[in-house]
Write a structure and sequence with these properties.
Elements lengths: L2 H9 L15 H11 L3 H7 L6 E3 L2 E2 L4 H4 L16 E2 L4 E3 L5 E4 L6 E5 L19 E2 L4 H10 L4 E6 L1 H9 L1 H10 L1 H25 L3 E5 L12 H22 L4 E5 L8 H7 L3 E3 L8 H8 L4 E6 L4 H4 L2 H15 L5 E5 L9 H12 L23
Helix pairs in contact: 2-3, 6-7, 6-8, 7-8, 8-9, 13-14
Length: about 375
Amino acid sequence: MTPRERIVASLEHRRPDRVPLTAWIRPEVDRALAAHFGCSVGEAHQRLGIEGWGAASVEIQFPGWRERAVDRLPGDFPYANRPVVLHDADTFEDEWGVWQRVGRDRRYVEWVSGPWQDLDDPAAAVFPGVDRLRVPADLAQRVAAQQAAEKFVVGGFGAAFKYVWHLRGLEQTLMDYVANRPFLEAVYDQVYGLLTAMACHLASAGVDMISIVGDISMQDRLMMSPRGWREIDKPRLRYLIGQARRIKPDLHWFIHSDGNYESILPDLLELGFDVLNPIQPECMDPFRLKQQYGRQVTLHGTGSIQRTLPLGTPEDCRREVLDRLRFLAWNGGLVLMPSNVIQADTPLENVLAWFETARDYDLSQLPDEEPDWSAAPPAVRV
């Protein structure tokens, strides 16, 4: 099977020849993989069986940003080597006006401040309008070319909550859900308006899937109350998805949030999300989810980056992958990957064992019937 055929089969709940594989990997690990195989990073991924997905995007324009952003910070952290406004050696401002600081280990950044953090009037919270979108004239042709090259094409954007808390601050945004609902609803109307336009452009271009990415949950529950999410986010998401589906009814819908968002999982299915990511096994049991929802959704992720990959042995990694394949891949509905970015301190031998086991496993050897769920192992064994 080609990568596109393999992914489509899995999302349509047909068993492919082998499980589709994808990954998010720290640059330090990517360099180690390339050195191990003696090739480029892209070729190293191919050797591990990691699928080449296609991508499409609609950009937001920020007038005057290029004139202001004359600085760059080297490194492997997010925003490294991108144009920024540098305020001191480690603190920079992005195009949204959000200030962030590079951490001491130079691998990640932390939020410092945002332009909405002290606002009381939602009318002063200026968010880009649809006139700020830049849609390439040949976007549909780019998508079609990738599909002809047997790539599964994904377009997407961040979750509204993520945009707003970056601009407003996490604590203040969570307080708005409880104590300042009019402010939050007013700014969400702006944000969801822009995201809906982006989704419609991507649907018109013919992408296979739209992804919405941004954490709304912690290890054990949502950050906001389920009721708050249902009252504020759900109706706006329903409208967004409905508008895009008028253009392309067969779109797949992907949602990403770290942590445990099971309290709103029935709502997400009702809205039309059919690909769930990343299913952190420390937070959401992939075997129970497969048993309960496995004919409705595709699980995308499920590998342990908190325990197995960084702390286990190569044999632990092989066992985890085999657990996933035996219980989650029997009817398709699985795209396998670690549940988030593979960190710099992950042993290379564990990464190799994890992906090579999945790459080499022939799914035709699985029984045709649903597995015996009473025999399902713990979600995390290490």
